[in-house]
Amino acid sequence: MTSETPFVHLHVHTEYSLLDGAIRIKDLLERAGDYNMPAVAITDHGTMFGVVDFYQQAQKAGIKPIIGCECYVAPRSRHDKTPADQKGMSHLVLLAENQEGYQNLCKLATLASVEGFYYKPRIDRQALEAHHNGLIALSACIKGEIPGWILQGRQDKADEAALYYNDLFGPGNFYLEVQQNGMADQETVNRAIADMSRRLSIPMVATNDCHYLDAGDER
């Protein structure tokens, strides 16, 4: 990395994203070290089972561990469990900014499994409103609520959701996420996100939604 501001991956799925992520933590940290990345995050789907292993290995490697989770968000309440609620789930990336944020992330992950589990561990807006302090949120991949509304042609609903999250987490703690993965739907979302960022004064962040380490690992 030759840039004065090195790129840091903030959306990464490890082997703890069962049946989804293929990145082993040891290999992730070695690659981050190879690229002189000062920090890296893990954001496994609906779980924090890999956090202790990640934190301990990152400390040894001299790389700052950023602890996160890509949460499944119920379309209504986490207590509602119907086929429509399963189909309407969206994604939201949460990163712990400090100790309070880590504790709140743990609470959310617990609520998702104990109270909200329906096909997937799910949180809802009520849980977020109770446990959002110390967290930084990203709008996630095309499975996120905001990208979902964009792809449905409901820019009004996308704006409404973005303003809700920006108000909840506070200015500078919510980011609209853009990615470059070659998908046509992603390009549509990226254009809309860039426009939203300008209109709504909500910052953007570039991620890569990593599920594997090397090109070809997906085969």
What key attributes describe this structure?
219 residues, alpha/beta, seven-stranded mixed beta sheet
Describe the structure in brief.
The protein has 219 residues and is of the alpha/beta class.
Question: How does this model look, in words?
Answer:
The protein has helices spanning 25-34, 51-61, 83-87, 99-114, 125-130, 145-151, 155-169, 184-200, and strands at residues 39-45, 64-73, 90-96, 122-123, 135-138, 174-179, 204-207. The chain is an alpha/beta fold and 219 residues long. The chain is globular, with a radius of gyration of 17 Å.
Bin the strand percentage. 15-25%
Over all CA atoms, what is the radius of gyration?
A: 17 Å
Biggest sheet details: 7 strands, mixed
Q: Give the SSE string.
A: HEHEHEHEHEHHEHE
Considering DSSP H and I runs of 4 or more, what fraction of the residues is helical? 25-40%
Q: What's the count of strands?
A: 7
Mean pLDDT: 95
- The low-confidence runs, each spanning 5 or more residues with pLDDT under 50, are none
Net shape:
globular
Distance between the termini: 28 Å
Helical stretch tally = 8
SS-based structural class?
alpha/beta
